Amino acid sequence: MNTSLRLVAAALGLFASGALAQPAASSPYKVIAAAKVGGAGGFDYVQADPDGRRLYVPRGNPANHVSVYDLDTLAPVGEIPGTASVHGAAIDPKTHHGFSSSRPVVMWDTQTLATIKTIAVEGGPDGILFEPATSHIFVLSHRAPNVTVLDSADGAIVGTIDLGGAPEQAQSDGQGRVFIDVEDKANVAVVDAKTLKVTAHYDLSSKASTPAGLALDVKNHILFACCREPTTCVILNADDGKILASLPLAGGSDGAVFNPATLEAFSSHGNGTLTIIKENSPTSFVVEQNLETKTGAKTCTLDPKTNRILLITAERAPAPEPPATPPPAPAGGEQPAGARRGGGRGGAMVPDSFTILAVGR
């Protein structure tokens, strides 16, 4: 471990102790640590495993692996290889099986990080979710099939789901319902995780479109659909889709999470901001803070043990002049990891500038 990582580990050790696990409500959030861990490859979603105390960061071309870090110290602990054009990772804490949102999907043992198998899937894997009521993995794709569902015990393909549009982020209520924001249709799809059927579409178009971040208050049945056009969080009743409120965001969302311990929703944006929304009651919501993070930090994840929010980003060289003729789209319509989300605006990634940010009070 280099000197900078030792300093980060020491600083974050205070938060891992749990002494600050219940922050004072009056304290504003801030970036409490930045671990410049480096490494090559694009990036997209970041995923915390609070039970296994690990942080999974998929790295796309040319790395094509999932980097694994200690969730408390952010020190590197290993890699999952062979994840071509990877975008996300999901973990089943009971079976200790991890899955990459890549083609093929790679399934691994979260305790040893050894690969168990690879799973051939169709579409262009992007977002991914573990659904605890069914022990299924939902692999999302912007093109058909929109969702490929895997059994987390053996990696078998259980079925596929047509959402009628391009999914971004998914959340589960833990009781067999999955909510998925459909970016190009301005709605949130409701899926029965047992039957793999879409039971409803909650329309957002009266308030905003292009939903990309989605957070869920499971206890109070509240959805936070974070949209880009305009930059707005549309707050809905998860039972019937009734819009309860809409609040401005500080940027275009690409990831959201809800912390049940603090009753706060977080929306992360590529312009280097993090909007924190406080749920005062199931019918009262307010923007609590707009925090400056770092440009490119578009996606986020929660460590519920420490109440930290983790984000990922990298420095970029100045953007080159656009070509007179745009290059052709990649075969199959897929985008490399980092091209749409993690890459942000700008030119090539500055070597070894990839950084994990920890936000807390």
Question: What this model shows, in words?
Answer:
The protein has 361 residues and is mainly β. The protein has one domain: YVTN repeat-like/Quinoprotein amine dehydrogenase (Methylamine Dehydrogenase, Chain H). Helices cover 4% and strands 48% of the residues. It has one helix and 28 strands. The strands form seven sheets. Strands 1-28-27-26 form a four-stranded antiparallel sheet, with helices on one face. A four-stranded antiparallel sheet has the order 2-3-4-5, with no helix packed on it. A four-stranded antiparallel sheet has the order 6-7-8-9, with no helix packed on it. The longest helix has 14 residues. It is globular. The two termini are 26 Å apart. The N terminus is likely disordered.
Summarize the SSE layout with pairings.
Elements: H1 3-16, E1 30-36, E2 47-49, E3 54-59, E4 65-70, E5 76-81, E6 88-92, E7 97-101, E8 105-109, E9 115-119, E10 125-131, E11 136-141, E12 147-151, E13 157-161, E14 167-172, E15 177-182, E16 187-192, E17 197-203, E18 209-217, E19 222-229, E20 231-237, E21 243-248, E22 253-259, E23 264-269, E24 273-281, E25 284-292, E26 300-303, E27 308-313, E28 355-360
Antiparallel strand pairs: 1-28, 2-3, 3-4, 4-5, 6-7, 7-8, 8-9, 10-11, 11-12, 12-13, 14-15, 15-16, 16-17, 18-19, 19-20, 20-21, 22-23, 23-24, 24-25, 26-27, 27-28
